[in-house]
Amino acid sequence: MTQVLITGGAGFIGSHTADLLIQVGHKVRVLDILDPQIHGPNAQRPAYLHPQVEFVRGDVCDRGDVEAALENVQAVFHFAARTGVG
Question: Which residues of the chain have pLDDT under 70?
């Protein structure tokens, strides 16, 4: 079993990738800032995230957040991006 980190994992692509990785037996941790533009002003862990996902709220631009999220991780899917939908 591989421990996988998905940055931007609370988004559409990241959350579906997490579902597939869990389905084939991997452990998944998601690092997401929950940008208010996408998730609203009082965003919490999205209900659509697979219950086995370990959710970490943090910013990929913050070295400490990234280092903590990378603990024991063997693979990374990087989907975090600046959004501009508003």
Answer: 84-86
